[in-house]
Amino acid sequence: MTVYTREQIVEQLRGIEREENVRIVYACESGSRAWGFPSKDSDYDVRFIYVRPVEWYLSIFEKRDVIERPISSMLDMSGWDIGKALQLFRKSNPPLLEWLQSPIPYLEETTIAKQIRGLAKEAFSPRSCLYHYLHMARGNYRVYLQGDQVKMKKYFYVLRPILACKWIERENTMPRVEFQTLVEAMLPEGSELTNTINQLLKRKMAGDELDYEPRLAILNEYLEQQIVYFEKAAPAVEAADALAEERLNQLFRAAIAEAWGRGI
């Protein structure tokens, strides 16, 4: 098992900048470490937004707008070009919105991520984000939690998106990233359901592998009820209009200029 410090991850990001001739304007931890329930062998899911030199964008040919590195020694690193990121931001892309509020940032040396966050409330579409989390919960439940014996840690991968759906319905904002925050905000304190979840979380955080065990009826019943409920409720959830293209074009140009210290 490899443990990385923030400095070591930043060093890896600097290596990508040199190899790819890019400026990484934002980088953070995503996945289970950001959500607050990593296993001992959880990968470091490092995600980033980068900007290429001006000339790269002045081409009649489409180019690859993703940088990915093979997973190595528990380090999983990938990022999106600023153009791709802003296009997805306009569509209220939940993974990107989660990156922007990750509790574990690694790099943010420009104002670009702050400017994107400044538009997040306008870009956020409750309906599309709720559908994203509902699809995730439904798929993970179907694949991992159907048998008499289930992999205990997979409960978190259904509970978290269901609690995100509840947050969207109640708060009409992007859900918090941290799982514990969602539990405390969305479930009644001291209930049997909450206590069961907290006990499972305590085991996971203590290093218990949470492998196959008899299914927990109280969790399965709750999750099935919530999935059915949100399948019916989702169409009535508020949608949002896409941000005006020119506002994002302005931000795109400003990002390139700031990243490379030159006007466009």
Automatic annotation (TrEMBL):
InterPro entries, alphabetized: RlaP
Name under which the protein is recorded: Nucleotidyltransferase
Taxonomic lineage of the native organism: Bacteria, Bacillati, Bacillota, Bacilli, Bacillales
Top-level division of the source organism's lineage: Bacteria
Pfam hit, one: RlaP
